[in-house]
Amino acid sequence: MHASLVVSGLRKVYEGAGRRVEAVRDLTFTVDAGELVCLVGPSGCGKTTLLKCMAGLLAPTSGEVLLGGRRVSGPPPGMAFVFQEYGRSLFPWMRVGENVELPLRQKKLGRVRRRELVVDALESVGLADAAGAYPWQLSGGMQQRVAIARALAYEPEVLLMDEPFAAVDAQTRADLEDLVRRLWRRRGITVLFVTHDIDEAVYLGERVLVLSASPTVVREQLKVDLPEERDQLRTRVAPRFAELRTRVYEQIQAAKRGEPVVEDAPPPR
Amino acid sequence: MKDDPAGRRRPGTWGGRLLRALFVVALPALLFGLWWLASDGSTDVYWPPLRTILETFPDVWTRARLRADLLPSLLRLLAGYTSAAVVGIGLGTVIGSYRKVRAVCEPVLEFLRAVPPPVLVPVIMLFAGIGDTMKIVVIASGCVWPVLLNTIEGVRAVDSVMSETARSYGITGPARIRSVVLPSAGPQIFAGLRQALSIGIILMVISEMFAASNGLGFTIVQFQRGFAIPDMWTGILVLGLLGFLLSVLFQLVERRVLGWYHGLRDSSRRSP
User: Fold this and answer.
1) Is the ipTM of this complex over 0.95?
2) Measured between beta carbons, which residues in chain B are less than 8 angstroms from residue A106?
3) Whether A137 and B161 lie within 8 Å, measured CB to CB
4) Is B25 part of any domain?
5) What global pTM score does this model have?
6) Is it the case that residue A267 has pLDDT exceeding 60?
7) Could you give the domains of chain A?
8) Which residues contact A55 (CB under 8 A, 6 or more apart)?
9) Which residues does A contribute to its contact with B (CB < 8 Å)?
10) B221 lies in a domain?
């Protein structure tokens, strides 16, 4: 049930009133089935545009996105999206349980199956007791957990996350990062995680894609050869972690200065 | 989780409740008292003492009279108001959802809204005759505007992230209207419904003053023409009471339907 995600030659140009903005120039990359890939780039580099094109929320100007070999032309049923703005992504008129359940109703799942999925998803984000609360009664971190639970219950093949932890405090953020790692390992979902936080990208990802400034291309792909088992204390002080984050940092700085991409730069060893 | 898990207002102590009730009653009681004192001993025919009006009240508003005059008025109001709500919310949802439809409709709506509804009474009489249909049409044609315009605004203002969330989870069509658009526009729609209610009561009375054989408006005009001035005043009191009761009822319904909205507002006020 786990699918790969292929982006090839993706280009997006916004046509405004007398203004043409090329947000994404030419993006080609692959996320293998069951992989966790982080995308980082300088701010304003078209990450959100890219993600929306991948989610079928925005039509690319040219190029295509393939999910499990099928071309994405609208929001595909095998994909779930977690937005940065949890407060605007959860429906405040529904209780937590109903929020998680709503997409499942749309999938025409039976009542029993829906219950199962909702309970299971809320349990796996540690919010088993919150089903009856309204989202606005929860803290920001908990609200984002609900959004993650809603995505999980949807049983996606691919999970897209758009800077999901940018708006929560640092401690909650660390917890949520570990949650994502844990869920990914347990469920084997393909995850594409967009962030502007370099440490977060290296800590979470199996691979980090560094994007250039807009108009966006892939600047560098970096394999994160840290051990599977990651830990907020030890992983972040490991020498290899420091090397990788330095490498990503340099690339982002170079991207900000608009330096050309050095082809086939060997990753540091 | 924040305190106060149900998200409702804390019920408060008995003392607090008593105090609140006192606040609610204080001003009406004061005004009534002033009226009583100011009118006591009045010999003006058109301005009878409140004492006289209140004494007349039970004789005028008997059970039979309530059934013969209040009930028809209420039924007309209910029919007109309900159809205005259905049409207003339905059309408003369509117009608010599509930018092109909105561009076409907006100038016409602005014009129609600007026409004061009582002006329509003679016109509507030409088409709908002088029966109940005419009165219901008059009420509906006045009530529909605030509902319609507020619904359009509310539907248009659905948050973009919420829309995208819904779309990405395949929530489209009727499910989107039911689960996302209408609840999100709910606070605005209710603001429109509230305005429509007071307009409805006014139009109910006015339509009954034109051509009617029963109803509150008809009765009040009858009393006035027959120089039964205290009786006329009791009719006005009944109207005031009716408006008050309907508004309380409306608030109860609103609190129930928009419970989430009040909770959300309270919670964001507590933690800015």
Assistant:
1) no
2) 169-171, 175
3) no
4) no
5) 0.86
6) no
7) 1-78+160-167+178-269 (3.40.50.300), 84-155 (no CATH)
8) A72, A75, A79, A81, A160, B168
9) 52, 55-57, 75, 77, 79-81, 83, 85, 88-89, 91-94, 102-103, 105-107, 130, 133-134, 136-139, 142, 150, 154
10) yes
